[in-house]
O-antigen ligase like membrane protein (Brachymonas denitrificans DSM 15123), 385 residues
Amino acid sequence: MRFSFSLRGVSGLLAFLLIFPAYVAYQSAVQFDLIPRFLGGYYTFGAVAAMPFAVWAYFQSRGRARVLVEILFFLFLALFSLVVIYGYFSGANRLIVNPHIAYILKIFSLYFVAMGFAWENSGYQKRLRWLLLLFCFYIIIASASGTYVVDYESLGDLEDRLNYQGVGLAIFVMMVAAVPSANSRVRMFLWPCVFLALYFVGARSEFLAAILAFLLVEFAKSHNPLKFFSSMLFIFFGIVLLGYFFVTEVNDRMVQILSIGQDQSVSERLVFQREALKTIVDNPLVGSYASYPPGAYSHDIFSAYVDLGLLGFGVLIFLYVLSTFHLINLFLKGERGDLFLVALLLILSSFMLLLVAKNYTYLLVPVAVGAYVRFYVSRYYDRGV
């Protein structure tokens, strides 16, 4: 699809830029004391600012299409909202309820952004490649002591520390939007840059998701096993070369991926998971919303069962099973379009992370579902979205 300046296209692009690239720029500028933290953590502000553009692009793109996955997603959000409202008025811990209220806003906004954004527009893809490259190089060059995240001790306010999870998510989404559609030479240049940037940021989940994306994209783009393995070898040496020039100290957080059993955060998460399973056994139908201390939630999909009960958990699982099987079936039949690959990468990555590392409020979930619905509408309703 050629680059165009339609109102619908520009609205979707503006919403995307306000959420992802602007977040990386803001967080980086705050961390290095270039600007004050006048917009808080930014994501809530970005969600509000992007909402009008995203909603316009969404309704212009989807028409009257009925998509079961979208219906399930809105049902899940309705259940989440009702439970949070009940928790608010029943005296649940405000340190859990208040962030959940903000998450509902962000999830709605990110879904509309992802569904309304023209992932398949070649002009947007090219410009996002340059933007992604700029951010990656800045992260690599500005990193010190093996990390892009400034130490707590060097900051006057602990809140000014960079949100590595949010930045990692933004870089990953930009990568999915920009890299798969590029030719092989551009991809071979961009992959190592993205991997090294995520390494310095310390976003382990997104780093692993990027590896999955790389394997899927290169397998999909290769016409024979030799080309696929050649791509893997090239990327490996590219990462080693960049690491030789820019990695002066080892990032302990990332190295701990190789020794999960000795990782303190993993040990803590196992404790949280056991407590969550106990809560589920004690409350098998409706769960027990906000029954855990702030931050002590299960870092996997069972967090939905704890907070939203069997119905919320079942809807989320069914949503992902439907979309995953549909996309894998199309992949096996030879589907390789740009929008298809975006939907495939986002759905598989978010599902994988929900199963092993993230709770149900993970913001890649609405992005993945939005991209899938856009692909579905584009393929089966042929509206040229």
Summary: Confidence is low (pLDDT under 50) at residues 152-160. The chain has 15 helices and no strands. The radius of gyration is 20 Å. Residues 62 and 93 are 38 Å apart (CA to CA).
